[in-house]
Amino acid sequence: MAYAIELHPGQHLHIHNSGNQTVVTLTTAAPGQQQQASTSVTTGRWTAVPVLYRTHQGGLVKLATAQGDRYLSIQGTSMQLVSSPSVFGHPAPVPLEPVPDPTPAPPMAPMPPLEPMSPMKPMNLSMGNMQMSMQPMEMRMGDMTLGTPPPAAPARRFCSQCGASVQPSDRFCAACGHHLGE
Ligand SMILES: [Zn+2]
Predict the structure, then answer these.
(1) What is the pTM of this model?
(2) Pick from 36, 61, 35, 33: which is nearest to 49 by CA?
């Protein structure tokens, strides 16, 4: 439910009921500028169309709710609920005009839409001579290779003297100089 009315020339009142909240937006248009004030008050759910009593300072909006009548006083750009309004003596109230939801003047700026997630790239990263791929798990930097050794890798040999790892083609241990047997 949303209603609007022109309070004074150039001053528009927009009001809508959201749950137990009544959201009031006051838009004042002057040449070259537009001011907007918005407030939200707990009133309960409306049971009838709000009506407006025009006053010299602004207006008094009567909200009929399930909890009883609520009065919203508007003076200039300030809006507040008043408990004991002096509506008597004012001219007859005028009903607000229904306007379509959603509100043309939302109290809060809408969130900018989130940028869509870019689709997952295949797990393959290339930077210069560095290459990484997941299948098989392997990482290369220049001519250095980390990861699972190729299945045909020859069995490692160790120095029988000191236990250091030696190449199968080595004839002497690089650590201790022990002559490696055939
Ligand atoms: Zn050795």
Answers:
(1) 0.51
(2) 61
